[in-house]
Design goal:
Blueprint (H helix, E strand, L loop, with lengths): L1 H24 L18 E2 L5 E2 L7 E4 L4 E8 L6 E8 L3 E8 L13 H11 L3 E3 L9 E3 L4 E8 L5 E11 L7 E11 L3 E2 L2 E8 L5 E9 L8 E4 L11 E3 L3 E2 L2 H8 L9 E9 L12 E13 L2 E12 L2 E4 L7 E7 L5 E9 L2 E6 L8 E4 L5 E3 L2 E10 L7 E3 L4 H4 L2 E8 L10 E10 L3
Parallel strand pairs: 2-11, 3-11, 13-20, 19-30, 22-30
Antiparallel strand pairs: 1-4, 4-9, 5-8, 5-10, 6-7, 6-9, 10-11, 12-14, 14-18, 15-19, 16-18, 17-18, 19-20, 21-23, 23-27, 24-29, 25-27, 26-27, 28-30, 29-30
Length: 440
Amino acid sequence: MKSIQGIIALGVLAALVFGGTFFVNYLHGGKGVVKVTAPQARLTFADLETNYPESSKRPAEEEIGQPKSHDFWFQNDNPAALPLGVFSMTCQCTHVQIYIAPADWKDVPAAADREKAMNDLMKLTKATELKDKDDKAPVVAVPAGAVGVLRLEWKGDRPGPKDLAAELWMGEKGPGPTQRFLIRTVFIGPLRVVPDLDFGDQPQEKLPIKASFPCWSSTRTEFPLDAQVLQNRLNKESNPFTVGKPVPFTEKDFDALRRDPNNGAVLAGYMVPVELLKVSADKKTLFDLGLFRQRIELKMDDDNKAQVVVKGSIEGDLSVVGADASSPVHFPSFDRTTAVSQPVVVESEAGVASLTLDRSRTPAFLDVDFPAGPEKSGDRKTWTLRVKWNPGSQAEGVFPRDEDEYRDSAVYIKPVYAQPGATAPSSLRIPVYGKADAPQ
């Protein structure tokens, strides 16, 4: 009896083994025969890491809006075909494609030969697009021994660092193994500039003063460049702040920028010359005393622009002194219908008899109260002014801002000299910042 039960058990076990083998090796109910590999079989990738660039290297810099790609070569070293598909991918990976080489390609090409090999492969076969959000996304079976390429394509839409990833399943989606591919990149614009050019504090007698700043590209080997002072109230001939024609980099310029790794690749660039004149080209405008801040627009084309701030201070017969000497007058948020003011202390040479407001250059929403006279200290005089908000001006909101009436938010103070016939003086420009709220 026991021997009969043993024979039956062996028979059942043999049937199960035969049925399992049949199910694994013959699919689709007799419609086709596809021999597949064991559940944990994987592709063999040519590189130790499926990352680009390698973990030990800096992320690649890519230009915003330009399509890019990277190829991961592989071979199926398993004895049977290996199904695969995309398990997931990030939104900026625009395509995940697979190329399978003809059967006569027996090995993955050497690293130095892969670019040419990829060009040849693209002529011989078409890519299959793999997608992760489509239930009908294709499943590709990589033949045993086959060589192929997994290509990731991407395109950035905003500047900054970004990790792009795709995950591939192999054998069977879910229980089978996966392979993650990571693209580390920094999306940048085609133009790179220093944030500002600071002349520091310069005495008026040193004018004219020249300087320059670099503008370069980490993604283009050549480009045109135009430089203009941005939205200035003066025309070019009447402006003592001038910007010259950009000059292509010399080897010395390239070397200086390339010494700093934070500048990225320096493929092409220009030095942009700036000059502070004592008086404008048409002899009508003197360079103002005090703080100055100008914006220069750098234009490659209509879609690619950058700005650099040029700043500093010119010292002369008038100057702001005290804690606020190196910063604008600041009005905290206030009701625009109220009269508010802030004190400013101005120092002058002994020859200055009085001060007056240059009303033609000061916006209507600002005014100044002047003291009856100065306080004297040796050969210098100090004047305590009050910069006022004009509640009857109907102005409102943040100032300065990028609108004609608010762009040059400053008061202009002119010295009046005791000596008759004194040379027309430079005005002292005092920038004013603040926020005028509508009444509640």
